Amino acid sequence: MITTAKRLDAVEEYYFSSKLREVRQLLSEGKPIINIGIGSPDLHPSKVVIEAIQNAMQDENAHQYQSYQGLPELRKGFADFYTTHFGVALDFNSEVLPLMGSKEGIMHISLAFLNEGDAVLIPNPGYPTYTSVTKLVGAESIYYDLKENNNWEPDFEAIEKQDLSKVKIMWVSYPHMPTGATGSLELFDKLVAFAKKHHILVVNDNPYSFVLNENPISILQAEGAKEVALELNSLSKTYNMAGWRVGMVSGNANFIDAILKVKSNMDSGMFYGIQKGAVAALQLDKSWFVEQNKIYQKRRTLTFELAKKLGCTFDEKAVGLFVWAKLPSGISSSEKFIDEILYEKHIFITPGTIFGSNGEGYIRFSLCVAEAKVKEAISRF
After folding, report:
1. Mean pLDDT value of segment 254-281
2. Is the pTM of the predicted complex or chain greater than 0.70?
3. Which one of 50, 141, 259, 349 is most buried, counting C-beta atoms within 10 A?
């Protein structure tokens, strides 16, 4: 018999991959499903972005292999973006590496810095991919609690009571997914100090900074951050380019060079036209964010109304592409709760448990749903 690698025994199929098959089956049966669970932007990129990829089709070398490091103008676009919006100076030749979506960066960083048996600090709740990638590379997951009563921020005193001797990487994500906690420059200063003290690489996964957030921040703004920190970013949510798969990682040249060693052995460069579209997106001014957020604000107001219909409570000051809502007291299982709604009301909402044990008792609504659909969902209650 041909058997699969043992590493697959430690991971399961991504929740949304399996759950959406269930949702598609209901749709095929004629059920009027409204999907409020997935954070896949339904809005379109700017017209100038579409025009840029179209115009690029006739450029010389447009359809050949591209540089593993991306076009110089794309790296410069990312560097200029960080200067404009975060006040962070990056050398576009050595401190910026374009990625095919920031999700692949999680794997690249893990392969570049983790040996089998090393340990990784992972937020609970947090993005499930941090755990699955850690398992795939043979490292150990050490979870640190994020709690509502601490603004969904790490309790460093509690973390330091654990054995950190094998920890090489700490994953953080501010603005936080799924809770929408904003984080702060003060928190980033603490994270950098913690990382230096324990010789840990801290990686901030930062794709939600500009969605319903008036004060975007980067961990690279913290003093000394480049010594111990990397930051992932993405055009998926910021510019409605999720399917294009454009992201980046930034940090000091030595870290970036290590990641490039992995990346250059795993792909043959990003398609030229997509890079040209990304360059155009990064040149959009702040009016782009203003107009996008007007749409998301209306959707969020309606989603708050839907959450109230379910007896949920939430933080109206949270930011990002989701509404993280606490279930009414007495509800013991968020997965059972959302399944009842799926089969009785034909509305799919994400259970908080897929983000970790601290997600129990919470559900997550996506704002990637047109106002009319949210109103229809409300009417079903």
Report:
1. 95
2. yes
3. 349
